[in-house]
Amino acid sequence: MSEVITLLEVSEDGESYLREPLQERGYTVHSFAERLDDIDFDEIKETTVLVPFINSEVTAEVMDVLPNLRLISTRSTGFDHIDVAAARERDIVVTNVPSYGENTVAEHTFALILALSRQLYPSLQRTDGLNFSPQGLEGFDLHGKTIGIVGTGNIGAHVARMAHGFGMRIQAYDLSPDEELAERYDIAYCSLEDVLQTSDIVTLHVPHNEHTHHMVNTENISYLKQGTYIINTARGGLIQTKALIQGLREGSVAGAGLDVLEEECNITDEAEVLTDEYLQRCNVETVLQGHVLIKDPRVLVTPHNAFNSTEAKQRIWDTTIENITGFCEGGDDLPLVTE
Description:
Layout: E1 4-7, H1 12-24, E2 28-31, E3 49-51, H2 60-64, E4 71-73, H3 84-89, E5 93-95, H4 102-117, H5 120-128, E6 146-150, H6 154-165, E7 169-173, H7 179-185, E8 187-189, H8 192-198, E9 201-204, E10 228-232, H9 241-250, E11 253-258, H10 276-281, H11 284-295, E12 299-301, H12 310-328
Parallel strand pairs: 1-2, 1-3, 3-4, 4-5, 6-7, 6-9, 7-8, 9-10, 10-11, 11-12
Helix pairs in contact: 1-12, 4-6, 9-11
């Protein structure tokens, strides 16, 4: 049977890049700009290879209505939108893109840090109104400040390299400290509590799972010294939203740069929040707390865009093609997701 590949949440440029090499191999390709929840499953019931992105929840129920499904190849590093245990029970292979954007996301991290440290957004707002007074726009130097990096994998390592270039003091928390990295960039590994207590800037670079969910929460947000900045370009669930609001209110958090929110449900119409479907899909309380953050002038929120560079997208597409063709043609060198 020829492979039937279904691409989800795919842009026009991504669709054209992926379709040609897959069709050249004789595969049937269906593509949708929508996420999985918005698609009629009758249209994709023959799917053997599902290629989702981060907003498509691939649950056990989804797998049960796709009887021919053999591979889930997500176009992301994170895989918390996939029920990996359910896939394993059904002998469905799960692959991801483990290292497409370590420098890309790290660069976005520092874009947020610099925007906060140099009052970039209020400066732009002021000059947009033809006001060129620098009064009240005093920033601070990164040189000599302490950055706490939570997670020193591929992305965190690039953040450390950049921080070292700025002349920052670097400390980090990781369950598996990278001693070579520590020696190269003079990193002091310590506990999460110590990172929170002594850093001027805390930046998160760990996957979201049951162990990291709300790793910054209402209990430990008080550990932060007054005036700390928090950056999150990883996953929204790492920070308990009401804890961040609490930190901003009490002053332990001076500002935040967020590329992700704990609840990222899109509201296309205000009336949508009154529907049963929306209430089942989204935590309304957390959505509203997220809107409080978005409106706070001390918080910069970007739309889950840290990965989005020309080069990173091409690496995602190339790896996705390799994952699909490798699986379908019997390759054994695949980035398998097993947990």
